[in-house]
């Protein structure tokens, strides 16, 4: 009997697709999707509460739609004994213009810096809304509206959200030292427990504080503890940004929004037009306020100086949001194994503290604690650069950020791929398929430069099977165990990753 021809099998014209079962492959998991934990202007949208709910966004416009835009702090005048670069002279007295600590929030600005520096997607965990301003001036005082318990609830919400691979909490710098220590150590512990995320921290005191840089680092190191240090990295100092322009901060931000007090310090007697304008301010509606603000900039040098001082404070930001954006850009352009260092930060104009080469050497590794801090430095013709890629565990084999993050990436990718074999027999046929699948994945990494070695055998190895990674009892207990060795820093010096799966049956 003749075999039917194709024309006899196909009854009607059209497109015919024959399904072919392809072997399983390892697909790399996302590596740079951060989760921002903190306070927002709104915690609900369209009647739905987002409180302690991880919300995925794809742009800063998405963030504004869900949580509202950022809000500059309120400012108060503080008498000073002498003139400095941060004071204004009113009559015969010098004043500094200090933000109200209780109105200072950082998450929204950090999200904006993230997208400006290469970020693509992020999760937002809102733990509450902005509180009311007070007359508490910003120094080393914490924001009394930012509560450790709320931030811990937001962190706990991420246990059930596996996609974020970076944790950061810009508002943490507004906590007291004791609360900051508890939050940081909890973030490191959760990242280590899940083994799927890496933490990025800002070092408190990295702004205009008079404390020397070595003292800032010495104050920070005891706060992070001694556990799970390779799952986080810290950066110092803060950054001077260009987020707030001259029209973004007006007289409504001074003295708690009390425009009736402007006449006491603007010296209106010098310019008659200024007095007329000041008398109108308390009665101005929102559409008129910006025009009055611009008129004040022209008529009053004191007002102009105050706005500039306020902008300096508002534009002083923790760097973690911008740094996470650089992590994303580096991962997308090269791979998670590429160190996120020697990268210029966008929308950053300067640094409040210039770190010298000698100071950086001390930050890189503390002789007593072994805890490393990464420096941000400014170079002529290059801008502000991330000048370090060390984890907090500066004295261990996990001292480098790309080493820890690559290990997380490989382990999470393998765990996801092995789920395809959960119903397969734990026998030699399955082991051969798994070994071939992982070998193909790691060889791809090696060819892209993610692993060290001139030959593949110098870059990685894969072990799975009876007598290699499993005992007879493991097979009886339906435990599938795979071990991978990766040369992440030097050829043939392998870091071991062990993946275990409970087979169904």
UniProtKB/TrEMBL annotation:
Lineage top rank: taxon: Bacteria
All copies of domain Tail sheath protein C-terminal, residue ranges: 395-501
Gene3D superfamilies per UniProt: 3.40.50.11780
InterPro entries: Tail_sheath_C, Tail_sheath_structural
Membership in a protein family: Belongs to the myoviridae tail sheath protein family.
Protein name: Phage tail sheath family protein
Organism the protein comes from: Bowmanella yangjiangensis
The organism's taxonomic lineage, starting at the top: Bacteria, Pseudomonadati, Pseudomonadota, Gammaproteobacteria, Alteromonadales
